[in-house]
Amino acid sequence: MGNKHKIFENAIVVSLETTAFGMTKISKVLTEDVVGRNDIKEGRAKTSIDIVSKQYDRDIRKPVRGARKLISETCVPWSEAKIDRNAKKTGRSWHLCMGKHWAELRDGVGEFEKEWRKKTQILFDNWNNILVDAPADLSIGYNKDHFPPLEKVKAAYGWELHKDLLRKALSENDIKNDIRLKASDELIEECMNSARNAENMRISNAIGSMAHDIKDFAEKVSGQISNYDPNPEDGRKNNTLPKAPTWRELSQLTNTLEDMNEMFVDDAFSETVARMRELESRIKDIGSDGAVRDVLKGDGPDRDNLKKRIDDIGRAVLPALNRYDGLAK
Question: What three-state secondary structure class fits 89?
Fold first, then answer.
């Protein structure tokens, strides 16, 4: 697995936690009305109602999505939130962030937070008007209990970017010398194995997910080129060639994989990075986005060469995918 201990020296884990006021409520009155008019058995239906315009919720959620997208582009998955017996998420999802990228990530997420705070403030500023208009807007679906005081609405909203140092699994000496452990040697050995397995699982999760992303990228782009028809008779959708965002994604993936490979030196990753850099260079040599697309629209050796480079990337990463897929999430 390469020098996995470098990860504890060069990376941190980050998690974005946001909370919001629930703008969709279950209406008892509307539920009774729907059940009664449609002869539905009691307890088999529930009717929800948006107590404020959905535009507020859409505007507030947009910067949250932007921040999570930035985190997913800058980092790689480290651990997922757990699902409890009631199918609810517990804990947080964490992403692995290279230390050298932390300041840029923090500032980028900070810009989204500023936008989020502007949008929540618009809701707060209009809350009194919403309270006044709600009875008329919601008719029989109005329930005054769905509209708490403004201070409670404000308290429901939260934004925090958590960061933490990686914690190594306890070493054998750490566990055996822990005076809190008064257990048999067999149980202590089980504790050590459990700690090591948890550490290896998280590392493999990060590596495996990175390999999956690159494989999926190569397959998607290769498929777009192979399936493109310059003169489709049916004018079908999805008959498009890669555009500028695709090559930006290529650069992002390459940078992230290169960072990972500094910590987990892997022959497959090294070859994949080299091939991705070669493809980047070739795209730049061709020139503009339009020029690249013109090449891909053609039927000559230049098009075939680009497609082969993309397919080679997918093949190069496969050994790493096969090594870590069994342990990755």
Answer: strand
CB atoms within 10 A of CB 316: 22
How crowded is residue 9: how many other Cβ atoms within 10 Å of its Cβ?
10
Residue that has been written with the tokens 């309270």 in this structure: 131
Helix (H, G, I), strand (E, B) or coil at 244: helix
* pLDDT single digits (tens) 170-208: 444 454 555 444 445 565 456 556 556 666 667 777 777
Domains and CATH numbers, the chain: 6-165 (no CATH), 197-324 (1.20.120)
Round to whole Å and give the CA distance between 323 and 306: 28
Question: Measured between alpha carbons, how far is 260 from 262 in angstroms, rounded to an integer?
Answer: 5
Using DSSP, how many helices (H) and how many strands (E) does the chain show? 11, 8
In angstroms, how far is the first alpha carbon of the chain from the final one?
A: 16
Of 149-163, 168-182, 245-259, 277-291, the range with the lowest mean pLDDT is: 168-182
Residue 242: which of 151, 303, 161 has the closest Cα?
A: 303
CA dist., res. 71 & res. 58, Å (int): 20
The answer to whether 123 and 31 have CB atoms below 8 angstroms apart is no
Q: Which uninterrupted H or E stretch holds 126? A: helix 102-138
- What is the distance between the alpha carbons of residues 45 and 56, in angstroms, rounded to a whole number? 27
Q: Residue 329 and residue 79: Cα distance in Å, rounded?
A: 9
